[in-house]
Amino acid sequence: MGNKVFVNGISSISVQEEFTWGKGFLEVSEEISRAHKPDFKKYIKPAALRRMSPAIKMGLSAGKMALEDAKLEMPDAIITGTGQGCKRDTERFLTEMESGGEVLLSPTSFIQSTHNTLAGQMALHIKCRGYNITYTQNSASLELALQDALMQLQEKSAKNILTGGVEEISELITGFMAFDGQLKKNHKTDLLDNRDLNTPNLVSNQDVFSKNYLADLPQGRLLQSKTPGTFFAEGSQFFVLSSEKNKNNYAELKDLTVKYRPENMNTEIQTFLAKNDLELSDIDTLILGNNGDFRFDNHYHTLQQGIFKETLQLGFKQFSGEYDTASGFAVWAACRILKSGIIPSEMKLNKKSVSKIKNILIYNQYLGKNHSLILLSGL
Amino acid sequence: MAKGVAITGMGIISALGPDVPTHFNALKNARHGLSYPEILKTRHTNLPVGEIKHSNADLAEKLNIPQELVVTRAALLAALAIKEALNQSKIRANGTFLVSGTSVGGMDATEEHFKNFQENKELRKYIRAQHPGFSTEQLAEYFGITGGVNTISTACSSGANAIMLGAKLIKSGKAKRVIAGGTDCLSRFTLNGFNSLMILDKGFCKPFDKNRNGLNLGEGAAYLVLEAEGEIGERLVLGRLSGYGNANDAFHQTASSETGEGAFLSMQKALKTAEISAEKIDYINAHGTGTLNNDLSESAALKRIFKSEIPDFSSTKAYSGHTLAAAGALEAVFSLLSLQEKCVFPNLNFKKGILEVGLYPETGFKKKDINFVMSNSFGFGGNCTSLIFSRNGE
Which of B23, B185, B287, B384 is an active site residue? Predict the structure, then answer.
């Protein structure tokens, strides 16, 4: 197994305000929600800020917030994950290219369109010349970034690694997800009925963005939805992982695994726990990635009613919204729970309680493809 | 000296040909594969590219992939290269990991169809195909890969980083067998992107030449099969990945620093993991894109690492074009060919050296004893990766 790995700094930019921990999360209530943005000027010079897409602004700020939290100036490596990358600059270049007939294009958005833009910018901003890499495996992108960091820290080839994920909302590319069943239709009718699941969404991008579907959704409704698709959002969570714990330390990152279309998740979980000398009963809190897409939430329901029936279960995507690196929100919440001992009651999916929280297991999947398990422990 | 991770299979496709032997012949005979866009529908028909002259339908047919499956061009190219690598190594796909580098992903499909997603239901299957991870998942399903699926996107160093991660997964015991490499197809998005940066040569690129004037884009895919010691048995080991180094230039989003700091650090780290000194390197397959900036910066870094004793080096970008995320993987195959065939490949289109650096790439096909080959890949975002390949006996 090698060295222990500790989470020494955390940060989160999401639909929720960062410092509302324990004060009650608000449920996402729109098909597409923008993140609650911090004061970016605290982290990025205004001149640079003007050219940056939300992904870069959020990612750079979240990265710097995590470093600040860990009181670390220079990590040995920067490892990022992003499933959909820099969508805004991608679609800007794409539409300019189309409308301009491939001539007189400005390179700015092309330069900023690559998936490694954030990791590169982070290196540039803090002058970190160490190991630098970007993973982009759809909903497992952040997990694979964490896995690389874990491997290096366990092998002692690094001491402190800044790792995190980012996804942004963009008008076109996010809007496309309304056409292929990823995004819920107008929830006002959608959450109430259960129509032909393959009916394409005929709402245009314009409609998706012009209608204001604000908040008439009672708490808990998203996860009980009986329709396809989910609510999308954006965000960035970053972590400072270290081989030595500091005073600020939140938790130990014990292990994680990612499986592509596993045959049996029960077996995968048991194998994973056994590898870490744990039994099912050692997991006192389970955080699940239910997102209200009834086609795929059965992956969670099977565990909820099966091997983890007696375990406290928490949900997070009703507060973070869905995005490829949303599991970062779950890791962030797990760290807060382990450090504070407080479980926000609104996260609870069942009525179990725990006296002392020790081991938190996070299980996430999207569209039944990449399935991840992340194990964190208190100290 | 580190033993290195065994490589038991390799496969490649580019404008030079559909397999490893055709690539070796092209490199040996200094025959490039550059042409002008015919398959790619673009107005820039005057820009040289390394284009594979097969339509997607042709490629899918070679692989027996039904038309209705959503497999974009990068995945088709990758599938052909992986097939060749698997045929050579004869491993089981079951339990094997797949690590793929790509930067374009399915952008070719997006740029063709995105305006019609709303009207045309049939095209909506391409919506998710844009994202790089999708193509890797398609490959995993095609080959029945169950170990793990991973995509890396670090621009032009993606393929090299994928191979590095493959070795790390094996060394750490997380994987026994890994298929690792990279794929990128030509797209109007990238062609116009590089064109807007004004770094495309309107002629054939001239890496390391005083009068170099930019790069030519190419497309292709290459994959290696990496295996843990216990898995090899009696099978042939083509060579070993004995060193790797990854660093960031932290200088500019697209340009490399004058001193080549990132490149210097990645080469230095690669030598360190290989546990060899710089003078052991017999051949360097340089990144050498042919842009003013890269070749100058890389030369500076080479001089810092190798001092006055610069080993034979050449860039093979003028053969295949710069295949972006696939480049590091293509050049890994070339490095293994250099070890196997004991040769240095000629750098095409070189006439005059860059005066201020005084470095001269090898311009002829040269036979010599080769024990260690270094391969450099640098990309946007300051991402620099160097790999060191060695002979099995070394």
Answer: B287
